[in-house]
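Hi all, posting the design record for the shared folder.

TITLE: backbone redesign
STEP: 1 of 1
STRUCTURE INPUT:
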């Protein structure tokens, strides 16, 4: 619940910043969300052992990184393309995975948007922000329904630190950083998170 809450804080601000900069293609994003939220709600109700959960998370992240690394955009400015038909059932699957792993799903969606050259890196980052926000809120809602509200006083600094970092990071990524930098930064973060998790739980 803490991770989902922090995800929602980060991506709410990020989504707003990308929206203000006109990087979010709402029609496509809403269509993908319609396919991902219902399975995300169901998968969020499943209970996994800690080790199984984190190993599944790390493997999913590594697969996302490989998919993202395979595609190299040729241009800084890309015209948004219609979504491929298979992106809709894929969004359903991503909703399930995001519900199980608890990280919103945008980190899985982005590599496939890159592979299909759907849009620019900043448009993909904006779509991923909204995707993570909505699916995180869906997962958090399900967790609250199952477990109720269980505040932990020792974790109170986390939301403050996360929100402060997101205010700075989303402003830079939406307005200052180049498309290429945003793409490679995303890739590095995915790989770091996956390797660190595997190192701890294997």
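Okay, here is what came back for every position:
SEQUENCE:
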């Amino acid at each position: 619940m803490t991770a989902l809450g922090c995800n929602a804080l980060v991506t709410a601000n990020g989504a707003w910043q990308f929206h203000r900069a006109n990087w979010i293609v709402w029609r496509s994003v809403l269509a993908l969300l319609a396919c991902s939220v219902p399975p995300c709600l169901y998968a969020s109700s499943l209970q996994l052992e800690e080790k199984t959960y984190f190993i599944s998370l790390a493997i999913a992240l590594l697969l996302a990184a490989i998919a993202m690394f395979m595609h190299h955009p040729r241009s800084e400015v890309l015209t948004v393309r219609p979504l491929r038909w298979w992106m809709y059932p894929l969004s359903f699957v991503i909703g399930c995975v995001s519900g199980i792993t608890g990280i919103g799903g945008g980190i899985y969606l982005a590599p496939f948007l890159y592979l299909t050259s759907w849009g620019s890196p900043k448009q993909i980052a904006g779509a991923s922000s909204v995707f993570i926000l909505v699916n995180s809120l869906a997962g958090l809602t399900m967790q609250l329904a199952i477990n109720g509200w269980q505040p932990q006083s020792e974790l109170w600094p986390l939301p403050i630190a996360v929100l402060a970092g997101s205010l700075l990071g989303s402003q830079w990524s939406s307005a200052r950083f180049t498309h290429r930098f945003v793409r490679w930064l995303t890739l590095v973060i995915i790989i770091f998170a996956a390797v660190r998790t595997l190192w701890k739980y294997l």
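COMMENT: Helices lie at 2-20, 26-44, 50-69, 87-101, 106-115, 121-147, 157-175, 179-201.
Let me know if anyone wants the other runs.
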